């Protein structure tokens, strides 16, 4: 059973929690009908992402077998055969199509917008898998766009209008994650002496500059989001004070990356760093107070 979960990359489904962003930031997280629609969007996106992971692993079997970590993936290790992977992929695509078809009344007028987002995400990631992941800058832009599509899918599923600043913030935040991961790969490549085509067009100096710019942009976008008229009217005006937690979290991440030269991906640093974890909890608590207990 575990090998099938690894094939589907279930642990990566956490990224699809971004579909809940429109529901959360609109203050409607307790609205049952909208919550059900967000869960539906999360399931669809997760299944689509898993189908992309299968296609990616299938196409990279030869190269993954030479990688110290990726060689343990189910397809590369031989734990799951190519034929079984094809059958699982076909089943996933049928389930995705069936769920979208059955949601005609469920998503009402936004069905085609939601389906278009799903279709574009799938096609974009196919292009990424077979070609664009080897094109510097384009690769991280596609990863970031994927997170924006998750937020848009959540908005279309629930019918909640998404702020332009929220969209920009999502894009730049995802850019931080993508560039941070590339930087870690570059450092590890220098240590091991082994590199790969995806890192062509990058070096550590460029990654450091791009990462710093992206963090600064993320802070600015978050500040403008909290100061936007719709957010100020919907929530308590003091919501902009939560930027303090955001600034600290990004500075702490940059410290871990640029000063202590941590090579892990940003998500792994977040999982390990207590300061960032506490800051995120405090930010979440403060934001919840402004949204749901503004009086």
Describe the structure in your own words.
Helix 9 (138-158) packs antiparallel against helix 10 and helix 13 (243-259) packs antiparallel against helix 15 (274-292). The protein has helices at 2-8, 21-25, 32-59, 61-64, 74-77, 82-102, 104-107, 111-130, 138-158, 164-192, 204-227, 229-234, 243-259, 266-272, 274-292. The mean pLDDT is 87. 73% of the residues lie in helices and 0% in strands. The radius of gyration is 20 Å and the shape is globular. The longest helix has 29 residues, at 164-192. It is mainly alpha-helical and 295 residues long.
If you average the pLDDT, what whole number results? 87
Q: Mind telling me the C-alpha Rg?
A: 20 Å
Low-confidence stretches: none
Distance between the termini: 49 Å
Helix amount: over 70%
Structure classification? mainly alpha
- Overall geometric form: globular
Task: Give the quaternary arrangement of the chains.
Answer: single chain
Q: What portion of the residues fall into strands of 2 or more residues?
A: under 5%
Order of helices and strands: HHHHHHHHHHHHHHH
Taking the sheet with the most strands, its summary is: none
**DSSP helix count?**
15
Instruction: Compute the number of strand runs.
Output: 0
